[in-house]
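Whiteboard transcription, Tuesday session. T.W. wrote the structure tokens on the left side:
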């Protein structure tokens, strides 16, 4: 599979990502072997996370940016994470339908993935899929998240540049003042800055840039988050947006990017440990033996939640 992957086989790429996303024990073991065998990319790669409130135009902007990049000679991989149903676990996985031009571009690859219940809308396997795309020759990887709050934290931990989309006249410029968001955003783009909305978008960008200068002071000695305006629909400002992203990468430099990615690998290792422990907990015979009784006692008011947790963890520790 690795040889086919490096030779540009899209079928091999699809199989490799499916293997990485699978929760089957044998697939997870095979995925670990595959990931361990992946070589370093032949040319520098760019990892960009894109988040924002629903309706901010993430998919439209991703398609416009992606087609511009492939026309310039880049190969673009898109990981689009769709929310899963809390009841059935199903996902629509309809991101390709929102990117019709990019979906048929031979130098692009779009992979919709379900969140599978992962907090914040970033699938567990997304971070592992990024190096698979890079091994297949994609030098720009865009991770588009659901945009439901906590996803910003998750995607920022797996990319080089975190891009936050906002809209004028939606309160987003005020929302951006929240320190938690500003600490994550490397670039903020006021999207849908076209037609009659262009003036409002520029005003919103000035307000948000002022907030950034105040709250981001001292956060990073080499880069202050920048605000640009753009339109994913018309393409206005998209070239400037890409120039800002590349300026951020240049400001970081190869060594700091290398350090970031090392931290990302460690964060992924911790996440995989948590996933494995949760899986072992669910399958533990000792836990299964007492879980129904503990649940009944909690529902009947006989046992407190903390005592129930102690009982379940005690059963798990005895595994």
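and on the right, the sequence the group agreed on:
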């Amino acid at each position: 599979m690795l040889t086919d992957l490096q030779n540009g086989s899209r079928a091999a790429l699809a199989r490799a990502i499916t293997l990485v996303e699978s929760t089957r024990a044998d697939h997870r073991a095979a995925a670990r072997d595959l990931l361990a065998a992946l070589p370093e990319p032949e040319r520098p790669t760019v990892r960009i996370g894109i988040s924002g409130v629903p309706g901010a135009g993430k998919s439209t902007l991703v398609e416009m940016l992606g087609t511009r990049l492939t026309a310039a000679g880049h190969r673009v991989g898109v990981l689009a994470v769709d929310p899963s149903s809390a009841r059935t676990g199903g996902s629509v996985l309809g991101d390709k339908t929102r990117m019709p031009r990019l979906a048929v571009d031979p130098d692009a690859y779009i992979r919709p993935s379900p969140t599978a219940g992962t907090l914040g809308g970033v699938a567990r396997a997304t971070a592992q899929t990024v190096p698979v795309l890079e091994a297949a020759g994609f030098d720009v990887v865009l991770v588009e998240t659901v945009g439901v709050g906590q996803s910003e934290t998750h995607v920022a931990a797996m990319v080089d540049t975190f891009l936050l989309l906002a809209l004028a006249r939606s309160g987003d410029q005020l929302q951006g003042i929240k320190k938690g968001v500003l600490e994550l955003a490397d670039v903020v783009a006021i999207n849908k800055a076209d037609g009659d909305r262009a003036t409002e978008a520029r005003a919103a960008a000035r307000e948000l840039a002022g907030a950034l200068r105040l709250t981001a002071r001292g956060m990073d000695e080499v880069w202050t988050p920048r605000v640009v305006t753009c339109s994913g629909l018309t393409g206005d400002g998209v070239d400037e947006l890409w120039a800002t992203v590349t300026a951020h990468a240049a400001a970081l430099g190869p060594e700091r990017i290398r350090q970031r990615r090392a931290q990302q690998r460690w964060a992924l290792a911790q996440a995989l440990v948590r996933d494995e422990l949760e899986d072992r907990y669910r399958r533990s015979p000792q836990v299964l033996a007492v879980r129904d009784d503990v649940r009944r006692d909690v529902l009947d008011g006989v046992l407190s939640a903390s005592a129930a947790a102690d009982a379940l963890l005690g059963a798990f520790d005895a595994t």
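Someone added at the bottom: The domain at 39-252 is CATH 3.40.50.300 (Rossmann fold).
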